Amino acid sequence: MSTHINAKEGDIASSVLLPGDPLRAKFIAENFLENAVCYNQVRGMLGYTGYYKGKRVSVQGTGMGQPSLAIYVQELFQFYNVQNAIRVGTCGGVNKDLSLGKVILANGACSDSSLQTQRFGSLHYAPVADFGLLDSAYHKAKELGIDVVVGQCASSDRFYDENEYWKLWAKYGVVGIEMEAAELYTLAAQFKRKALAILTVSDNIATGEATTAEERQTTFTNMMKLALETLL
Ligand code: HPA
Q: How far is the CA of 210 from the centre of ligand 1 (A)?
């Protein structure tokens, strides 16, 4: 039984967008979906189902961090038969050439989380995006004129990284730091589902720059549109 999502079987579409912030789920439902119905309010972690260009789509908040995302995504996969899951979130850029607002398609997600060691022990799993979703997002971005970078992100358990581990990730080619994608990709592998993380650079860890609220709104809108178009 699903504990954190209080919806009936069939209330949730087979394709779901996953913002961390539940209010962004509400924003997507109100601005992009037709006939959106709220199916979950437990803990304020809002979930909606509606239609985008005639396609039935849901959007579910996940909260911040891999343990929180894991609860919602496992319930979506295990109890609601969700097949395609696209995270739409923000990340910190670790490379000074990565401009604010740039959209990253995360082809892989490194992790510092104990969730990985709890599952794999001394093995080091490489969580990757579904190639079909990645390929379709890349081509949709070209069509829509959205500038994207395909690269690895790292999903950290710590937002306030006093050890500056981001520098080591950057040295090995990681482009953005966020807090959820690795667990999304790992759960998708476990349940044999498809997942992708589309990320907007909201701040640059290397330079200290951050987007204004207004910039965030426009760039997030681009990312949401790209995610929805990818599902068509
Ligand atoms: N670190 C982790 N997660 C983030 C960041 C960051 O700098 N920016 C946006 N999400």
A: 11
